[in-house]
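Please, structure for the following, as tokens.
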Amino acid sequence: MTGWIRKLITITCLMTLAAWLVFGFSAASMAGLVIGVVLLDLGLQSMHIANQTIIFALHPEARNRLNTVYMVSYFIGGASGTYIAGQAWTIWQWNGVVAVGLVLSLLTVAVHLLGGKKSKHLAK
């Protein structure tokens, strides 16, 4: 696997982070909402495809099992984020949701940048 996937994932992580920044700075703007949604969707969908590219290349004979584990993890992460953001909405409304999105996006960037160096399949 070449290093382009790692670069792509870095870009997509930064796109999701940028989306939450746009949401935070343009809470009352329809244009800001549209730009944020486009950034968030492009970032998440691209990251999802890049991640699947990585897992499908790991053990071609185990693609179904690896994809199952990945998708279950993806669903649990999405459901957990939704729950946490819902709780933040109850307490702090939009600013709480944006804060949750920012924190989770920052964690994603940190894990990717700090943890990815150990991945042999991305080191080339």
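The helical segments are 4-25, 30-58, 63-115. Residues 86 and 97 are 7 Å apart (CA to CA).
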